[in-house]
Design a protein that fits this description.
Blueprint: E1 12-17, H1 22-25, H2 43-60, E2 67-69, H3 70-78, H4 81-94, H5 104-109, H6 112-121, E3 145-148, E4 151-154, H7 163-175, E5 186-187, E6 200-204, E7 207-212, H8 218-229, E8 235-240, E9 254-258, E10 261-264, E11 276-281, E12 287-292, H9 295-303, E13 308-311, H10 317-325, E14 332-335, E15 338-342, H11 346-354, E16 357-361, H12 362-368, E17 381-386, E18 403-407
Parallel strand pairs: 1-2, 4-5, 7-8, 10-13, 15-17, 16-17
Antiparallel strand pairs: 1-18, 3-4, 6-7, 8-11, 9-10, 11-12, 14-15
Helix pairs in contact: 3-6, 3-7, 4-7
């Protein structure tokens, strides 16, 4: 299986997800902020909401068995002693202030399921007197890595709360056969830097966007930009973002719905100028840096076509801020012009309808295609609204909860 992603909207063929489990129920409200949560999640409802979202995926994707649960991949990976040793040693090195180093032998000797339980929940009956914080953010698999053309960027966490997740993803990428096609094209992040997958958007086979955000440093960006430009990417754009919790990643304020349409949070994207830098590989091997006036204009110049920026939250500023807060700008494309997003962002869906999208609720969508293969009419655009009242408490939408590893290449 050749893993490759050439755009944000090519038909999805394989994706990594994580349906929330016991780890979200172990979040102590007193510690939620250090675990990067603004609220606590009710596990049962969040799990049901996530599984219903995946029903949509399975209906639209050409091969529904390619929705991979990260914990299944982890179990298969940790069955290798070499993988357990790598993960344990990297965890000890990454968290030198903890006493995990005294558990090295036990962790390596654990059965894969026991080690994974400890990684995800922070506790196991095999270590009755030792616990660490849970890893509730595993739900947001997008941040852990990014497949860009035929490369994979292995993210480095900005916050200690997510170190285990990122190391788990690196271990899977190194040792699981699913990633064999990318073994020679792994891009690592420097130890002093941070880059998270929610800041990386693949516009086309030649153009990549990277948000300089609360979670992705400029030096981290420079490291991956240089490596991407050596892998046939022609332009890497740095998008300077407000360093705020609400806009922690680029995809919390900007996503693609189709090759020519984007959902944008106006105050941070449409109304902002002089925050774009374009890094371009020249014929002599040197990298040229130019300034872009705005994201829209810069992309249109590089793509040589017009783009439509659809306003998250509609025209009213209060609704824009409210719906950005509940991930109205964080939609996920299953195919060009076929997107999913939280139903509660009604003004954003109203804007999509004005731009030619048929807005349909998940129940109606699944009922309509229950007994037949999904087949969309040429040129038809769908915005599928799914319930996520518990999921959105974690401050992440449909794109945040998905890590595409194969998309069909789009033809223009």
């Amino acid at each position: 299986m050749n893993l490759q992603v050439y755009s944000e909207t090519g038909t999805l063929e394989a994706v990594i997800v994580h349906t929330p489990g016991r780890e979200v129920s172990l979040v102590n409200p007193q510690h939620r902020e250090q675990l990067l949560f603004d609220d606590i999640i009710f596990e049962t409802d969040a799990r049901e909401e996530h599984l219903r979202m995946l029903q949509i995926f399975s209906k639209v994707m050409p091969q529904p068995d390619r929705v991979f649960e990260i914990c299944d991949l982890a179990l298969q990976t940790l069955d290798q002693e070499e993988a357990r040793i790598f993960f344990t040693d990297e965890l000890i090195r990454s968290l030198p202030e903890t006493s995990i180093r005294y558990l090295r032998r036990q962790l390596i000797e654990f059965e894969p399921a026991t080690l994974l339980e400890f990684i995800v929940t922070g506790t196991t009956k095999q270590l009755p007197h030792f616990t660490i914080d849970p890893a509730p953010n595993l739900l947001f698999t997008r941040d852990l890595a990014a497949v860009v053309t035929e490369c994979i960027i292995l993210s480095r966490a900005a916050k200690p709360a997510r170190v285990r997740e990122f190391l788990l993803m690196e271990t899977i990428a190194r040792f699981h056969p699913l990633f064999s096609s990318l073994k020679e094209n792994i891009i690592h992040i420097g130890e002093q830097d941070s880059v998270e997958g929610g800041d990386i958007l693949v516009v086309s086979p030649e153009i990549v966007l990277v948000g300089i955000s609360e979670r992705t440093t400029f030096s981290g960006f420079m490291g991956i930009a240089e490596k991407l430009l050596k892998h046939r990417i022609k332009h890497v754009l740095a998008v300077d973002l407000p360093k705020k919790r609400a806009s922690m990643h680029l995809d919390t304020i900007f996503t693609f719905a189709s090759p020519d349409e984007c959902i944008a949070f106006p105050p941070a994207i449409i109304d902002r100028t002089n925050n774009i830098s374009v890094f371009t590989q020249q014929d002599d091997g040197q990298i040229a840096v130019t300034r872009g006036q705005s994201l829209k204009r810069t992309l249109e110049q590089l793509l040589n076509r017009q783009l439509t920026f659809i306003q998250c939250g509609g025209m009213d500023p209060i609704n824009q801020y409210r719906e950005q807060w509940t991930d109205g700008a964080n939609v996920f494309a299953l195919a060009p012009g076929i997107i999913v997003g939280y139903e509660r962002n009604t003004e954003t869906f109203n804007q999509l309808a004005l731009h030619g999208y048929e807005v349909i609720h998940q129940k109606e969508f699944l009922r309509q295609w229950q007994d037949k293969p999904f087949q969309c009419e040429p040129g038809k655009k769908l915005a599928i609204a799914f319930q996520g009242n518990e999921l959105c408490r974690g401050r992440g939408g449909a794109r945040c909860m998905t890590l595409p590893i194969i998309r069909q290449e789009e033809l223009h």
